[in-house]
Amino acid sequence: MPLALVTGASTGIGRATALRLAGSGWTVLAGVRNEAAAQALRDTAGGASVKPITLDITLLDQVDAAAAAVEQEGGRLDALVNNAGIGVGGPLELLGEQELRYQFDVNVFGQVAMTRALLPALRRAHGRIVFISSIGGKVPMAFTAPYAATKHAIEALASTMKAELNLFGIGVATINPGLYRTGYNETGAESHDQWSALQEVLIPMPPAKPLLALQHDPQPLIDAMVETIPDRKGPYRLMMPEDAVVETKAAQALGWTQKAR
Predict the structure, then answer these.
(1) Would you name the residues annotated as active-site residues?
(2) Over 60: is that where the pLDDT of 201 sits?
(3) Nearest alpha-carbon partner for 186 in 213, 225, 163
(4) Domain boundaries, the chain
(5) Residue 212 reports pLDDT greater than 80
(6) Please, are residues 174 and 236 in contact by the beta-carbon 8 Å criterion?
(7) CATH second-level architecture of 3-254?
(8) pTM here?
């Protein structure tokens, strides 16, 4: 039975992906933040092979414990899904230093730590590393600078890791979701909205609610992820939905012609 480790599996895409992989015949080590989330995952999984593990990817002792859990399962890891992440929003000028650093600790340094710790097990299985990036990793939007910057970093890390690790039979891929109704964007909107009282006197910020109304049903994305994650020779990039692909290509073309202001 193949083995996967999915970080950030307490809620949203990570949780749904862990459950679907387990339902497809995988054993899944599902990284969650606390015992309440672990029990909720066990209750939902029923008889499926989901094994929650307490995992904050910014804590190296928990990263090491996750690697030890893989060793206990036989030491061969077929897929690492680097899904754990947070989103800090607001004007870059005003965001605190601690907020900026924590954004990078989770979305970049934590994912690097996980990948490094699990490379021996991935090499043994000729496994696959999947980074959950974002449309923001290709198309940054105003007031999402910290989040978009971390996703741009992930794009660079994934691309260079692909070049380095393909030599060992390890596949690397990115998944770039657009706007999906998973609860993640609502949490980010709360961070965004805390600056609304200042918008008339400092930096105009558009309301978040109209954007949230454009979110898509996440089920097609989850279906595609469950097909992509096991496919060692599958595409390097999966971006969904189609409107995200169109927007990204248009923005990339504009990058060669736009003016400074």
Answers:
(1) 10, 133, 147, 151
(2) no
(3) 213
(4) 3-254
(5) no
(6) yes
(7) 3-Layer(aba) Sandwich (3.40)
(8) 0.92
